[in-house]
Design a protein that fits this description.
The chain is an alpha/beta fold and about 450 residues long. About 40% of the residues lie in helices and about 15% in strands. The chain has a six-stranded parallel β-sheet with strand order 2-1-3-4-5-6, with helices on both faces. Helix 2 packs parallel to helix 5, helix 9 runs parallel beside helix 12 and helix 13 packs across helix 14.
Length: about 450
């Protein structure tokens, strides 16, 4: 199967992860632009080069497109771009000529509104007015944002919303097999929620999440029947809402399964695979923020005796240490279909389910690729995000801090270290603590 994949940007979870997942089945051939063409925290994607690259592709069975990359130069540039509506439309019409008649799975973001004064991923004025703009979006009351700043912000929102309505026109023309509008870092109320409601009224489909959606679309493009039974470690709290999301964890799980093209069953005996969700009681924790959950993992959950995958969402931005320590003593590699615990609940679920879909009845299964993927996920989501990250003040050499976790995972996943990511190197691709890249030396 040949798949064209246009990522949001060059982060490891957007660029490397899709390649690592696809490698589980050697029958899948991923065509992805050179990494230097993609944007990062400070620069936009080279859109002209990406479009030229697309012009020279062989015929693909599916095209998975992050539309923000072509429209604005990436997800973060979509919030900062000074380009006019006409300039953006010109790039998009060039893209349209390349995708007509193809099997296209695409998504576009609905601009987020972070509740903070951090401008790392926003326009410069967010450092002074971010929280007040959020409050204005939430309440409709301006508590001091200068008019020219508010107008600039609202003009950017209006432009992006017009672009999303353009995609709806393309959908009516039959350009897309699937089109998703992502609600990135979403609160229960605000301009982004209003825009999502309007897009749905016009016939669009919205989804809470962002970074994982291309991977969810990858799962959707791979047509394999899998019936999933969902088992929660905290079944009484399925209605609790995750950090950075606007829906319950149960609705988030169901939405990801439906988008990924999975079947859902209430009968555990009839399920092909059990999706274990280590969910939270009342409020999701976040270790790097010092936020604890209302109820810690009890330690009495036993992994299923049939195929299973594990979504660890008790904490945002990292694993649940107690839970991981417990399951690592139980993992049965014959039935194990993957673990994830990174960033938001939607990020965790979408990326995990993509790997499940690829591994399930892979035409040319590559066990080494699967073990490498899982080693990286545990090293990133558990070792780094839930432990080592809090022990450093800025990007630095963390090899010694990571070594105990490497040793433990090597013993679990393989008696032969060469089969996994055995000699990892830790890189800060965006020169900040938030994400690391784990590469083999």
């Amino acid at each position: 199967m040949k798949i064209c994949f246009i990522p949001i940007d060059n982060r490891p979870v957007c660029y490397n992860l899709v390649k690592d997942i696809a490698a589980i089945d050697e029958d899948i051939e991923i065509f992805i632009p050179p990494r230097e063409f993609l944007g990062d925290l400070k620069k936009n994607a080279q859109v002209n080069e990406i479009l030229q690259w697309m012009e020279n592709l062989p015929d693909c069975d599916a095209m998975i497109l992050s539309l923000d990359t072509i429209a604005y130069g990436g997800l973060i540039p979509s919030r900062r771009s000074p380009d006019s509506l006409e300039e953006i439309q010109k790039r998009l019409y060039r893209l349209k000529s390349l995708i007509i008649g193809k099997n296209v799975y695409a998504f576009s973001s609905i601009m987020r509104i972070p509740d903070n004064n951090c401008n790392e991923e926003e326009k410069e004025y967010w450092k002074d007015w971010g929280k007040k703009i959020f409050e204005y979006s939430y309440s409709g009351v301006n508590t001091g944002v200068p008019q020219e700043i508010l107008e600039d912000y609202l003009a950017g929102r209006r432009r992006n919303f017009e672009i999303n309505k353009l995609y709806l026109n393309w959908q009516q023309e039959g350009i897309f097999d699937t089109l998703i509008f992502s609600k990135d870092d979403c609160a229960p109320k605000g301009f982004n929620v209003d825009e999502a409601i309007e897009l749905e009224r016009l016939g669009g489909k919205t989804k809470t999440g962002a970074d994982e959606i291309p991977l969810s679309l990858l799962a959707r493009a791979i047509e394999k029947d899998i019936k999933i039974y969902v088992e929660y470690t905290e079944p009484d709290y399925k209605d609790s809402v995750s950090n950075y999301e606007d829906i319950s964890i149960e609705k988030s799980v169901t939405g990801q399964l439906e988008l990924g093209g999975f079947g859902i069953t209430d009968d555990k005996n009839k399920a092909d695979l059990i999706l274990v969700v280590n969910n939270f009681a009342e409020k999701q924790g976040e270790l790097v923020m010092g936020w604890e959950t209302s109820k810690k993992y009890s330690g009495n959950f036993e992994l299923p005796s049939k195929p299973y995958a594990i979504a660890d969402v008790r904490y945002a931005n990292g694993a649940d240490n107690d839970f991981v320590e417990h399951i690592l003593t139980q993992i049965d590699l014959d039935n194990f279909y993957g673990y994830a615990g990174w960033n938001t609940s939607a990020n965790t679920l979408g990326s995990l389910l993509a790997a499940v879909k690829v591994k399930w009845k892979a035409k040319k299964y590559n066990d080494r690729a699967f073990l490498k993927l899982e080693t990286i996920r545990f090293l990133d989501d558990w070792a780094y995000q839930a432990n080592v990250r809090a022990r450093i003040e800025k990007p630095c050499d963390i090899s010694d801090l990571m070594k105990p976790y490497e040793d433990k995972l090597t013993k679990i996943f393989s008696s032969q270290p060469a089969k996994t990511c055995s000699h990892p190197e830790y890189i800060y691709p965006w020169e900040r603590k938030f994400e690391i890249e784990i590469a083999e030396k």
